[in-house]
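Ligand: xanthosine-5'-monophosphate. Inputs:
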Amino acid sequence: MAASKETDSLDSKFYKTADVFFPAYSNIGLTFDDVTLATLYSEVLPRETQLDIVLAEGLHLNIPIISSDMDTVTESRMAIAMALSGGLGLIHYNMPDREQLSEVSRVKNHVHGLIQDPIKTAPDQLIGDVLNLIEKKHFAFSTFPVVDAHGKLVGLLPGHVVKQRYSKRKVVEALTPRTQVQTINKRDLGHDPIAKADKFFTDHPGIHKLLVVDDQDRLHGLFTMSDVERITQERNAQFKPGRDAEFRLLCGAAVSATRNAFGELDRERILTHVGGLVERGLDVVAVSTAHGHSKGVGDAVRMLRDAFPKLPIIAGNVTSAAGVEYLADCGANCIKVGQGPGSICTTRIVAGVGIPQLTALYVTSRTAQKKRVTVVADGGITKSGDIVKSLTLSDAVICGGLFAGCPEAPGEVMEFSGKRYKQYRGMGSLAAMKAGSAARYGHSNDTNRKVAPEGVEALKEVTGSVDRVLAQLIGGIQSGMGYLGAANLAQLREKARYIRVSPAGQREAAPHDVVELKAGG
Ligand code: XMP
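Predicted complex:
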């Protein structure tokens, strides 16, 4: 609905577009809580908003959220969960190259709903041993495929015989023999294995398990009817999994600009490793360092661009227009922005450098538009409202802390005073640098040398699974878009108008003057 000239000019006096607002605050660094967004007339229902984004040619995300390349955040389990929800995971590089290759393979070979490495039993095991295993590992299931020493399928141990009264019997005496077990050859799974399994269960009333085998009858996986039913229902979800042209889940991986013994960029190692990642189907590589506007990072990006002309490259981190221009000119498609905003970062304290995130995003996004590259906002995001503000300037966001408490993040759960936590540490913390990430901060991996850590080792309270955390974040983004009348992310960027918030305004924004019984979200 068109507003009158008078109301329009009153609004625009207070609520300013990015190009008016940020230059007016060129003498101060602003971050998420320093500003708020003004609402606009809207005909957009939050649930109808579109969140898809093209980060580079050939890299299309259904939601603009990426999990951080940190060793306490993203390995294959997290990357699979992110891609299944429409986002992307960047596998960290604090591991030997061959391990990173297999982590990427795990994501690219993941078949949703197929348990690819099911818990198996052996024919001569006692049923009592199986019962002990169930108790020890807290398994919620009791049906197990039975395989021989070569991985060949021998039969299926059904739950109704896994009972104490049979504990002295061997598995081979109680199993359903191979001839009566329903299987499918993995060759026949096709592009849509879930649809195949779903049809199988409809065609075979009473059968709840379907085993996957190869030509040699070796076991390769297991479908259960309950998983398949849940996934078939989820298919109506608005945000589809992120997949490549061959229907495999999207996966990214980070590499650092490592140097050889002579202090030169280790070209051979980087090229061989990224070549291996690409062979396994990697969708995007991230040259991930604390200081992206540097010769080593530029040289690495240039070298990768020459060697892999079609591979999308994310590079960073920078916070200046010149940094964006430099990395774009070197051949990066997408620039990672953020120096010091992360929840575990101490770069600003230790090195005295870094820029509050919204100012950094404004400065970098304007140059990115000119250079036709995209921008991802990396670090400092603690709530969905921060993501909405971020997306008014960036194309996507990278989150570490928000996902570090999920079961899909690496690491064990610890319990203190009745509360459950997972470890979350900066890649510039001493422990992470010892494990390999020192190059990211411009140090050698020689742990005997004294280096100043730029991150802390911390804990995150255990949260729900990635899809639950994402559901909250996406709900918040969609609400924000509804308030601004933005049907998609391009409109959000176009329509955003900002105003600075006073400390009293910040206090007003959070629950106040109440006794909170239940935290929001
Ligand atoms: P959040 O706020 O999501 O931030 O937990 C994650 C991002 O922080 C960056 N990062 C670091 N920055 N020292 C830093 O200055 C560190 O030790 C460190 N570790 C991670 C990184 O960009 C990540 O995505």
